[in-house]
Amino acid sequence: MNNIKIGIPKALLYYKYSILWTAFFEKLGCTVVLSPDTNKDILEMGIRKSLDESCLAMKIYMGHVEYLMDKCDYVLVPRLKCLKKKEQLCTNFQALYDLTQNVFDKQILTYNVDLEKGFTEEKGFIAMGKRLGFSKVQALNAYNLAKLSEEKQKKKKAKERSVILKTTKKLKILLAGHPYNLYDDFIGKQIEAVLKNSDIEVFYSDVYQALDIDKEIEPISKSNYWTFNKEMIASIAYHEPLVDGIILITSFPCGPDSLSNEMILRNVHIPIINLIIDESDSNTGLITRIESFIDIIEERKKHE
To answer: In the chain, what are the domains?
Structure first.
């Protein structure tokens, strides 16, 4: 059990669960090996390993997995289907383990979360720890400590951003999307850079203090059952009266987003733009669209 190396692809669910995963493995004494930020080489590797119909985020993920193949003992690839009863996640997350295992010849470490069938996150982490050779007690203790660390850091970040949201004098723009789109270097980070260069205060739809998700989404969508999309919509509804504009970020072609985005665009009443990113997008064209959007917001502010 000494010096087990766990590879974690820096893509998809990493941007939601990185604190939990890293803390869990480190508390068990394992070494966490991360892939680098997304770059052209990783994207090209992922494209070669993916179906043409796969969304950009999935293509990027496969590139990160390939990067880790010779650098660790296991690659972490979770299977998440149902995090809340009567809701589910995109089929990519449900099939992620099977897709990855069928493409790569590597020890895949996984855990399964499907509440409707009784598979909780806690049970998944315990099973994962036992597979690595640790006892149930060791795995449960590591999981509980990791959850505490995750909650503490999330609350701290949300509180800090809430203060800035209420006090800043700068133009405020919400970047709305799934964390793997918001924080990936090839997708959201280039958008963030343009905004910050224009002295815009940037906020993120995955950073918020406690919200009643089902209540918050009512003005936009009452029937959405995709968990991650519901969280994004609730955050947009919460932030709408507090920011000057919203940039909706989507990786092409995302099925759940194509439905949710239409509802959002129809029901948000401040300046909003939907940027759909694929592997062939020109950075220059993207910058032009963002700068035009900023001009619109500034003109609107002048007339208020």
So the answer is: 5-148 (3.40.50), 168-303 (3.40.50)
